[in-house]
Amino acid sequence: MYMFKQLASLYIKRERIPPPSNPKPIMSRVRFIMIGGFLGAGKTTALARLARHYVAQGLQVGLVTNDQAYDLVDTASLRRQGFRVGEVPGACFCCKFNELLETLTQLADDQQPDILISEPVGSCTDLVATVIEPLQQLHGDRYEIAPLTVFFKPEHGQKILTAGKTGFSPKAAYIFLKQLEEAEVIVINKIDKLQAHEVDSLTEAVRSRFPGKAILAASAKEGEGFSEVIQAIEALRPTLTHRLEIDYDKYAEGEAELGWLNCRVELASQDDPYQLDGVVLALVDRLAEALCEANYEPAHLKVLGQTPETTSIANLVSSKLPAELSVTTGATVRTADFLINARVAGDPEQLAAMVCHEVQQLAGVFELSATIGHMQQFRPARPEPTHRVTTDGQLAS
C-alpha cells in the first residue's frame, strides 16, 4: 500500500509539470536507397535480399518498383513475398519524379518506414542528376540519400567491358556504360555462375574503365558477398557531384531499340489440374526459341504464374543461357493468371504477335484454354526528365 501511494504521488507530480511552451517534433529522415542496373542485372533479387536484411533488424521497409509499362512481374513477386511495394509505372523515375514522390509519401503515411528502397527502369540512366540530386535539394529534410548502387550481370560485362563488343545493341551498351559511370558502388552480380578468374577479370575491367569506384562482386540470389554490398551502401555517403555528360539523343535511341511488352494471360484446364511450374517454364522456353528464330536478343523475359494461394516465376536473361525457375511452387492448379514481361531487341508489334502465337500453341500442348487479356507493346519514348541538376549544381525543371 505504501509503494502504491509513492507511485501515485510520483504520477501526480509528473502530470503537474507544464509542457514546453514551444515543443519541437522529433523528425527522423527516411533512408532512401536506389538500386540501379541494366535489364536482367538481378536488381529485384537484390532488392528483396536487402529488404529482408533490414526487416530482420526490426526496421520498417518500403519498396518502390518502376517500369515503362503496367502489370510488372517484379511488383507482384515482391508483394507475394510479404513486402509493402509501391509502383511507378508508365515511364522512368526521372520522367515521373512527382509520381515517385507521391509513392514515397504514401508508403511513409501507411507504414512509417525507416528505409525506402527503389528500383528504377533497367534502361534508365542519368539518375543522379534527374532523381537523386533533385530529391536531395527539394526534400533533403525528409530523406537521407544513400549512394547510387548499380548491379550488372556478367554477360553484359564480359561482352562490353572485356571483349569490347556491344552486346545485343550498341546504343543500349551506351546506356549500360553510363549507368556504371554515374554509380558510386558497382556490383558484379551473379558470381555464383562464374569462375574465380572470371570475377577477377571483370573486376579489373571495371576498375580500369571506372577508377575510384567501390567495386564489389556478389550473388544476390545465393547471398555470397552481399554483406559487403550492404556495408558499402551503409558506409558510403553520396558525393552528389558526379553528373553525367550524356547525349540524350543517343540515350533515347538506345532505349528505343528495345521492344517492350507486358501482358496478362489466363490459362485454364477443364479437366485435370496442371503443374504450374512446368507450364511457366515451358512458356518461357517456347518464347526463348521463338526469339532466337527471329534473331531477337532478349534483354529480359519474365513470366509469372499465380493463383491467390501460390506463385511461380521463370526468367530468361540471355539467348546464350537457358531459362530458369526463380520461384517454384510445386502446386497443381486448374486456372492461373500469367504476367509476361518481355524486353527484347526487336519490333514490339512482331513481339506481340509472337507472344500470342506461343501462348496459343502452349495451350494446345497442355490442353488448356488461353485468354489473352490486357497487353501493352511499344518502344520507350524519349526521356523527358521532370528536373535535372545542371553542371553548376542548379536545379532546372
Report the major sheet. 8 strands, parallel
**Average pLDDT figure:** 90
Topology-level CATH name of the largest domain: Rossmann fold
- Based on CA atoms alone, the radius of gyration comes out at 24 Å
User: Strand content of the residues, in percent?
Assistant: 25-35%
SS summary, helix count = 12
Overall tally of structural domains = 2
CATH class wording of the largest domain? Alpha Beta
Measured distance between first and last alpha carbons: 69 Å
Quaternary class: single chain
Number of strands: 18
Helix content: 25-40%
Could you state the CATH homologous superfamily of the largest domain?
Answer: P-loop containing nucleotide triphosphate hydrolases
Quick rundown:
The chain is α/β, with parallel strands linked by helices. The chain has helices at 2-16, 43-56, 73-80, 97-111, 127-139, 154-162, 170-182, 196-209, 226-235, 248-256, 276-293, 348-366; strands spanning 30-37, 61-67, 84-89, 115-119, 143-145, 149-152, 185-188, 214-217, 259-268, 274-275, 297-306, 311-316, 324-327, 332-333, 335-345, 369-378, 388-389, 395-396.
Characterise this structure:
This protein has 12 helices and 18 strands. The radius of gyration is 24 Å and the shape is globular. The model is unreliable at 1-27 (pLDDT under 50). The protein is an alpha/beta fold and 397 residues long. Helix content is 40%, strand content 25%. The strands form 4 sheets. Strands 1, 2, 3, 4, 5, 6, 7 and 8 form an 8-stranded parallel sheet that branches. Strands 13-12-11-15-9-16 form a 6-stranded antiparallel sheet, with helices on both faces. It folds into 2 domains: 30-254, 3-Layer(aba) Sandwich (Rossmann fold); 259-378, 2-Layer Sandwich (Alpha-Beta Plaits), CATH 3.30.70. β7, α8 (196-209) and β8 (214-217) form a beta-alpha-beta unit.
